[in-house]
Amino acid sequence: MENAISLIEKYASGKKIAVAVSGGRDSMCLLHLVLHSEKIDAANVTVVNVEHGLRGEDSVRDSKFVAEYCKRNNVSVTVEKADVPARMKLSGRGAEDEARRARREIFGRLLDEKKAELVLVAHHRGDNAETVLMHIMRGCSVSGLKGMDVLSGGIFRPLLGVSRAEIDDYVVKNAVPYVDDKTNTDTEYFRNFVRAELIPLMEKRCNAETALVSLSCRAREDDGFINSYINENNIVSAFGGGVQIGAEKLKAHPSIANRYAVKMLGKFTDDYTEAAINSIVKAARDDCRAEVAGGLIAASEYGKVTLYRAETIEKKEAAFGVGAYSFGVFCVTVRSASEIDKFDTSDGFGRTLYLNADKIPPDAVIRMRRDGDTFEPFGGGNRKLKEYLIDKKVPLRLRDRLPVIAVGSTVLAVVGVEISRAVKAEKKGSIFTVEVVQRA
Prior knowledge:
With 440 residues, the protein is of the alpha+beta class. The chain is 36% helix and 22% strand. The protein has 14 helices and 22 strands. It has helices at residues 2-11, 25-35, 57-72, 84-91, 95-112, 125-137, 142-145, 164-173, 190-203, 208-227, 254-265, 274-285, 385-391, 396-399, and strands at 17-20, 45-51, 76-81, 118-120, 151-152, 155-156, 236-237, 243-246, 289-292, 296-301, 304-309, 317-319, 323-327, 330-339, 353-356, 365-367, 374-375, 383-384, 404-407, 410-414, 418-419, 428-438. Helix 3 (57-72) links the parallel strand 2 and strand 3 (76-81). Helix 6 packs across helix 9 (190-203).
């Protein structure tokens, strides 16, 4: 408990903090520690209580208890309501999982909106042991064996090294009031089953809690060592949306490849499975396109793997001229000019194109690619547009999404890629500049 007090004073002193309080023993113990710390200014403390809508009047009663305690102690309090039953119907997830997600969203919002610099939660040593065992039972990797972090992403767990017995002793000695959540004894919930039945059974043969916490410490060291070989800067934004990494990173040892896959998934969601990780690695190793859960696609693209969200392609068409055009994730801007300082000769996708305005037919349109389109690129012969895009190594995901400027089936320019020989612009004259950017 002395260590917990030291952690609070070290990390929370002088900061605007939110303390997550349910009204139970653990969170009331944490709140009492915070309010009785000489180095914490109560004016910087906000209590956040989440009413999950799961226990009817009991849940409302607990929130009222927390609010009244805070009022007596002159502490600011916010009661957040999360309709977990409604969320469960939409997601199909269980109550435990959905309640945890709801709390995490609320805590994240407090941090994002700068209402708190840290959110303190009351997870203790026993919670950490339970978490490690639950992860093992679900088939986790070394990362899952780490359990909880004392400080991670603005979430602060100063009681993580404190035992259940120490908390109980503190509550009694300091006459800390609390309420009991009756669902904590319902072993239909996975964590309650682990806490009330599984760990006590294991304790008959060994000191299970100590062993699990020790395992988490060793796993944290090993995971940190492996992660020292991971450079997240290798994951970059992909033109057209999504993220991209060199395929060789996903062909490395599974300990490395899987971690890169996890970090790629983390750019989209924190809800993923082993199958999703395997799909990304498979895209690299089999040089293929693989579907990933949640509408994500992992695609091998000329030595790189791109993870992106599948989307319906809108077949738009508009008369070509000066102005701005929206095509899915792309925004195309056409401007008029009379002189070009310097042509954009950059390689890849997204470069600025320059067209001879006098050679653009009045019936030209800007639209998406169609079957049968032909293209005579600047510096090449006339051919099917599909063949040109393949030879140009334009990824499959972009071929139907990059707008083109065309007359009938004759393509005058592939936006962001190349112009036709027929509309070559000189440095001076009547010129259209065509720029494409990816919308945020």
